[in-house]
Amino acid sequence: MSMPFYVSPEQLMKDRADFARKGIARGRSVVAVQYADGVLFVSENPSQALHKVSEIYDRIAFAAVGRYNEFENLRIAGVRLADMRGYAYDRRDVTGRGLANAYAQTLGTIFSSGGEKPYEVEIFVAEIGDAAEDDQLYRLTYDGQVADEHGFAVMGGAADVVAAHLQEHYVPGAPLEDALRVAVAALGHTESEDRVIPAGALEVAALDRTRSQPRKFLRLRESRLAEILGERGPTEADAPSAEDRVAGSGPHQSGVDDPADPTDQVSGATAPLEDPVTGEPPVAPPVAPPTAPPGEEQAPVDPASPGEAQPPAPQPSAPEPGQEPGTGQPPAPGTPPPGPGEV
Amino acid sequence: MTPMSESRLPTSFMTPGTSSFADFLGVQAPDLLPSRRAVPSGDAGDLAPHGTTIVAATFAGGVVMAGDRRATMGNIIAQRDIQKVFPADEFSVVGIAGTAGLAVEMVRLFQTELEHYEKIEGTTLSMDGKANRLAALIRANLGLAMQGLAVVPLFAGYDLVAEQGRIFSYDVTGGRYEETAFHSVGSGSLFARGSLKKLYREDLDAEGAVTAVIQALYDAADDDSATGGPDITRRIFPVVHVITAEGGARMPDEEVSAIADRMLASRMQRPDGPAAPLT
């Protein structure tokens, strides 16, 4: 007979939150900026096909960071919900608030259900009105929380660094060109340097209320971006990132094993469960140096099941410098730590 | 309508699969599909207004479609200013003849279908793909058509790959036929087509093509009681859509009325319209 281990609800939720937060911080940031004629989305995305920013309905757009397959599912569900509602009622009856609510309920239910892996995604839902005061920008986190954002918002990657840069340079009610320049500069900004992101590696889209068609969503192509951004000096593409690999693949494994952090995904860690004999709580497991170097005692990688509830087996990788030793304390929500290779 | 009231998105919404809105609706809310409604047996054709004549013609660099504004119920004019030509998406337009209510609903479904595909797949359907989807919607309506509630559309658009305007006609069983140069559907279509035969030339520009279809609609209204001519007292003129490589738009009423006024002025001199050379 197997003995069921007791895990406190607090610990369970904390583990799930840490798991989701780590996945989100691994990708690159997405910036949403309100400007005079609507809402602008800017992200660094070398892929021309796998979009992070998409159209949902006439005046509603969607942007996401995290695992591609998960937010793509949410996007398609949103398009279906919006189209169905617009067809059953009227196009004006499709609202960003309704969509944000549906997403919040969905993410919240998945997060708290024991049977499902929490989604490693964070989402913006934006809706434009007839005037700038009516524009709405919602941020939804992996656990289904909704925040009403004003002015600008950043998610994914080193969100706090980008947000700090925007806080300094953002001007409310700016024209599209100025808003774009500020957002692109913020994305290239890190604590150590300011990088010039090539126009071809940017994914930019906007909800523009000055468009004559009912569908207000438009993508800004590379030529238009280059024209607006002008000469900015030598460009430098971002280093390869985990999310550049096969879409929907498991998260990139890196960093050192930290026995104090039961949620890190490097092998050798103490299992995030209490010791059945001593009854030690999982919150503070005995701190001991890792006995096995990373790379040993790995479970075989199963490529057929990338979306398992358990974190996939790590891939051998050298500990990367720059990874701060984990303290077991998660950062505050909304300020994910800079992931390795993302600074 | 359970999916609308539930707070969490239903699992079926998150399931990858079809990019077709009509297919999705058929599984999720079949009662919303116009073709899934059961109608008591018998002829229901006299219950609802009927839309009448639609004409379309290509020109170098695009295609135009125009529809008259009349809907009839038997001998009654049900509506004088009905709109029967609708944009399907940015580069295509659909005009409808037949049972007006069903047809308008089918156009809404078709518009959503094209937009839905575009948003889900990130790319637009090909011109033939759009024409085939419309054929499938018409085919699903065959049961209702046999009870007198037929919908017969005319579909036209600018094919960005072939770089030319194209016209597709349909029958009630969903048969799809590509037409060259010009075509017409509805009760006055025989007269409109005869008129276009004499007026159409391959070197027409956009305005010339609009003039030709407005002339054709006048000829249809001349001989078919169910087709409305230009209403000069109420200033109601045909709905005209022009589609080129830059996209499609409804021609503003002022421009249509200017062309219609010129046509009417010349018909004052020669009521049968311009005379075509004999040889």
TrEMBL record, chain A:
Query: Which residues fall in a compositionally biased region of kind Pro residues?
Result: 282-293, 309-319, 328-343
Q: Which UniProt keywords apply?
A: Cytoplasm, Hydrolase, Proteasome
Q: What is this protein called?
A: Proteasome subunit alpha
Q: According to its UniProt record, in which pathway does this protein act?
A: Protein degradation; proteasomal Pup-dependent pathway
Similarity comment: Belongs to the peptidase T1A family.
Q: How is its activity regulated?
A: The formation of the proteasomal ATPase ARC-20S proteasome complex, likely via the docking of the C-termini of ARC into the intersubunit pockets in the alpha-rings, may trigger opening of the gate for substrate entry. Interconversion between the open-gate and close-gate conformations leads to a dynamic regulation of the 20S proteasome proteolysis activity.
- Entry superkingdom: Bacteria
State if Phosphoprotein is listed as a keyword: no
Question: Where does the protein principally reside?
Answer: cytoplasm
SUPFAM superfamilies the UniProt entry points to? N-terminal nucleophile aminohydrolases (Ntn hydrolases)
Q: Identify the stretch(es) annotated as Disordered.
A: 229-343
Q: Name one GO molecular function term.
A: hydrolase activity
> An example Gene Ontology cellular component term from the record?
proteasome complex
Functional description taken from the UniProt entry: Component of the proteasome core, a large protease complex with broad specificity involved in protein degradation.
Q: Where in the cell is it found?
A: Cytoplasm
- What is said about its interaction partners and assembly? The 20S proteasome core is composed of 14 alpha and 14 beta subunits that assemble into four stacked heptameric rings, resulting in a barrel-shaped structure. The two inner rings, each composed of seven catalytic beta subunits, are sandwiched by two outer rings, each composed of seven alpha subunits. The catalytic chamber with the active sites is on the inside of the barrel. Has a gated structure, the ends of the cylinder being occluded by the N-termini of the alpha-subunits. Is capped by the proteasome-associated ATPase, ARC.
Q: Which PROSITE patterns match?
A: PROTEASOME_ALPHA_2
